[in-house]
Write the structure tokens for this entry.
Amino acid sequence: MNQSISTTWTRQDSDSAPVALSLEKLSNYDLILLCQAGMEPDRPAFAELLRRYQFHLDRILYHLAPDWQDRPDLAQEVWIRVYRNIKRLNEPNRFRCWLSRIATNLFYDELRKRKRINNPISLDAPRQVVDGEMDWEIVSDYPNPEDNLCTEEFYERLREAISQLPDPFRITIILRELQEMPYEEISKITGVTLGTVKSRINRARAKLQSVLEPYWQDL
């Protein structure tokens, strides 16, 4: 399903001959509408949609399951679910967000099957924070030019530090910081209370901060 395509579809204007349009020139929004137009999603249009969003999906699954060898299989299952349910997407402009949630839900279903989430870890030890929040923020994979820590070495260390967090903390902070999900939705997906979600995020941030502190001191 990862093949790159270059194809066309035709649009019939009133009182004119059909006009051939390149799928690669269509906006994401129009591609989604085209996929929703028929009884089944338009296959060339869906393949182009897949091509555009494959990197985004791979990035999500990489962060969620860095040590899983079957991520390509998970990605394929995500696209199967998208294909089957794309007509249910009421807001085509939110496709990226919708795709992220399908990937996250599928990953979490698989994680529960593997029984890896119930692993006792010391990060759950009581810790005092102000108003349940911490000031330190995790940056995304994409460097911000205004950030004085914007170096490839820093981002590599950050990615490595995230991958070494225990599963519940790594997943929760990825959902919050990389996918920007609200606390309430994270609580629903992970099946834990809102307080536990906030606690895990705070402690994951603190752990990452402590791991990266030696690097900051050397800058």
